[in-house]
Write a structure and sequence with these properties.
Helix 1 (18-30) packs across helix 5, helix 2 (60-67) packs across helix 4 (84-96) and helix 5 crosses helix 6 (182-201). This protein is of the alpha/beta class. The model has no long low-confidence stretch (mean pLDDT 91). The protein has six helices and nine strands. The protein has helices spanning 18-30, 60-67, 78-81, 84-96, 164-178, 182-201, and strands at residues 7-12, 45-46, 69-76, 107-111, 118-119, 124-125, 147-149, 154-155, 158-159. The strands form three sheets. It has a five-stranded parallel β-sheet with strand order 2-1-3-4-7, sandwiched between helices. Strands 5-6 form a two-stranded antiparallel ribbon. Strands 8-9 form a two-stranded antiparallel ribbon. The radius of gyration is 17 Å and the shape is globular.
Length: 202
């Protein structure tokens, strides 16, 4: 992680999705860690739990969280697409984190429902087909960001956190934050599960 940043990532989400967001955050923080280390995650994530600013602009706490984070992770959903706060957080992130060509950097997302469609011809999200991210007036993306699709592992407010396919999706995001390959994270998960089996069955 950039030594100048306090957090590995800032999570942007709609408060309507909070029943899933806490579990997803916890998965990113603890995936690959043995039980005795999970009280002290190896990634530090900022998430504003109130998520309902009283004024018409982002709160000072949110702005500080954005400025002190290395990556932005958007929880992509229909609710996020319709959230003015998620849109403002993306635009604020772009303002503070863009390359020399003006494109957003260190932006990633976790899809929990609806559709993300990338237009490879125009190198942007398809505004007609994408229903899980806010529509933006300007083109701020240079290429399709790394992302995770966990929507099939969410049901009735719960996340299937022990599903191996879900773990792989989360490992893609966590690997990015820790500058590791997803396989390295999954190998840690497999090692921990093997050790558990040895404990319980020997």
């Amino acid at each position: 992680m950039n030594s100048n940043k306090k957090y590995h990532a800032f999570i942007s989400y709609s408060h309507k999705d909070k029943k899933y967001v806490a579990s997803i955050q916890r998965s990113i923080e603890t995936l690959g860690l043995p039980l005795y280390k999970r009280w002290q995650p190896d990634v530090n994530i900022f998430r504003d739990e109130r998520k309902l600013p009283l004024s018409g602009s982002l709160t000072e706490q949110i702005l500080t969280g954005i400025n002190e984070s290395q990556y932005l992770i958007v929880i992509a959903s229909r609710n996020s697409a319709n959230s003015s706060w998620v849109r403002e957080e993306i635009l604020k992130w772009h303002k503070e984190n863009r390359d020399e060509e003006g494109f957003i950097t260190n932006f990633n997302f976790v899809l929990i429902d609806n559709v993300i469609e990338w237009d490879y011809l125009n190198q942007d999200f398809d505004k007609l087909k994408t229903t899980a991210l806010p529509s933006l007036d300007n083109k701020i993306f240079k290429e399709l960001p790394l992302w995770a699709n966990v929507q099939q592992y969410l049901k009735n407010g719960k996340v299937q956190t022990t599903n191996s396919n879900y773990e792989w999706e989360i490992a893609k995001i966590k690997g990015l934050l820790l500058n590791k390959k997803p396989d390295e994270i999954i190998n840690d998960v497999s090692r921990f599960k093997r050790n558990l089996r040895l404990i319980y069955f020997t």
